[in-house]
Request: fold
Amino acid sequence: MADRKLQVALYWGAACGGCDVAVLDTDAFILDLAAAADLRFWPIAVDGKYDDVEAMADGELDLAIFNGAVRNTENQHVAELLRRKAKLLVAFGSCAHLGGIPGLANAASRDEIFHRAYLANPSLEEGNVVLPVTEKKVASGTLEIPKLYRRVHKLDDVVPVDYYVAGCPPAPEQVKAVLKAVISGKLPARGSVVGCSERAVCDDCKRRKEEKKVKRFYRPWQVLQDPERCLLEQGIVCAGSVTRSGCGVRCPNSGMPCRGCYGPTAGVRDQGAKFISAIASIVDSRDPDEIASILGQIPDVMGYAYRFGLPAATIPGTARSL
Reply:
């Protein structure tokens, strides 16, 4: 590909925009990218329309980087469109990779979400009864908005994906690794998680590890931590033992527990189930009531265990959301 510029597209689905910022966080490397590639479509940074992508020949793009989950009909339409137009499609960041933070919505039904957002939201005028509709006829025609799906989906639920880049957001070095691999043509096996390790975060964490027996769990702000000792051994809920490494252990090195955003380690089917098993194994009690009391100190088990991967779980939501 050295004889011509790469043709690249970036898109955000159900996301916060942090993954797009991560691309810019490569600093001066973005200039190397500009020299090696034409950015044909990037809604956050380049003025382009869906019609422009529709007009491309199938396979015209060398690379499409898709961040964000698939939450509505628009997200799925663009995912399918970019899949047709691109030789390589990358699920970029936790939301595209595993469902991400938006995937926690799978713990509730669509009706419950609408009720909270549009009827029971403290910022609304009292008595509001207006809910969004997908079509509305007005004098000039019909207005349309995307239809919200009953569930949040990760990208490979709706289209085949060639590579994955983990993280919320991915570290700049991972962004570089993906782009350099495409530019050089030295690509790993399809389906690979690019720029990550096969090890767990715990394996790369330099904190001192002794014996994991916990009588109480804390939020980080509730305890004065030992900066040298394993956070989990101090009762601070950390997902480092069940999370793929590659981030540079940024959170534990900063005194914060691993959140699990790089997804499960190789060979693990369900990161949340593995997390729950790991936490249960370190509770220092055999008394059922005491065990329940200790575990009850974790305020939101679902939020800890499946913060980034509920749509990728063995059971990807509650019965209400399916």
Remarks:
- The longest strand covers residues 6-12.
